[in-house]
Amino acid sequence: MRFAANLSLLFTPDVCFKERCARVTSQGFQYVELLFPYYQPINTYAESLEEHGLQIVLVNTPIRPNEFGLAALPGQQTQFQSDFKWAVDTAQTLGAKSIHIMAGKTFNLPTEQWEQTLCQNLEWALNYVQGKNITLLLEPLNHYDVPGYAYSLPDQLRPILDHFQSEQLRLQFDFYHTLKEKLPLVDTLRIMWPYIDHIQFADPYGRHEPNLTEHPEIIHALYELQALSYSGFLGCEYHPTTDFESSLHFLQSLQHIGLCTNPKGVACI
Questions:
Q1: What is the pLDDT of residue 108?
Q2: 267 lies in a domain?
Q3: Is the separation of the CB atoms in 139 and 172 below 8 Å?
Q4: Can you give the pTM of this predicted structure?
Q5: How many CB atoms lie within 10 A of CB 192?
Q6: In 8, 86, 100, 121, which residue has its Cα 20 to 30 A from 129's Cα atom?
Q7: Could you name the active-site residues (predicted)?
Q8: Is 112 a catalytic residue?
Q9: Catalytic one of 115, 139, 209, 217
Q10: Residue 249: count of CB within 10 angstroms of its CB
Q11: Residue range 21-38: mean pLDDT, rounded
Q12: Which ranges of 59-205 does DSSP label H, i.e. alpha helix?
């Protein structure tokens, strides 16, 4: 397991991208997530990442204001394809190996209708990335933060993942969304384990750095991942209570219980 700093959530909007890269590097991070690297010239991102020796591991497909993607929305296939090609070009330029496909808000649309649209778009997308070193990810988003999103529960994605049975289409599992939905974290992790390729976390209250005292289930889930020999990334996708550097105190706690090997907590067993 390796921790990845989420450059999108860990800093306030006034912090420029280059400073974000410098600050995560100073805390020992080598891997980062960047949700939407579409607002500046691609070279701006690439140069700062290279200057600070950072490897980007995850991007999302583009979204627009008040929109959470298009993959499950009927009638938006042409725009989805254009956005997806943009995401693939961006991922390849920056060296990211995973793309989170944003499904969109389906609200009261019949499940059969949005599922059919999603599967059609996924089939097209999988054909597009065939032969490329890219994994497509689907992530449930809790219905409190994103009401109307196509799927809020991991189990909703099992039929879709089972249908494709592709190593290039996997589950992005987030402790935060799972806990917000009041699901048992470790049990859900075990059930969804065969589908998981990428993991993120945050405290379920306020989406801040995890409070391991109040939420020991997060520690239990990390031990479970250790037992399962998870070799992927753990995305620190949270809003710090105060500032980025101060928020990393939880990593020291993980080091004390044998879940981290780096003095700054970044390298995870």
A1: 86
A2: no
A3: yes
A4: 0.96
A5: 18
A6: 8
A7: 139, 237
A8: no
A9: 139
A10: 12
A11: 97
A12: 77-94, 111-129, 158-164, 175-180, 185-192
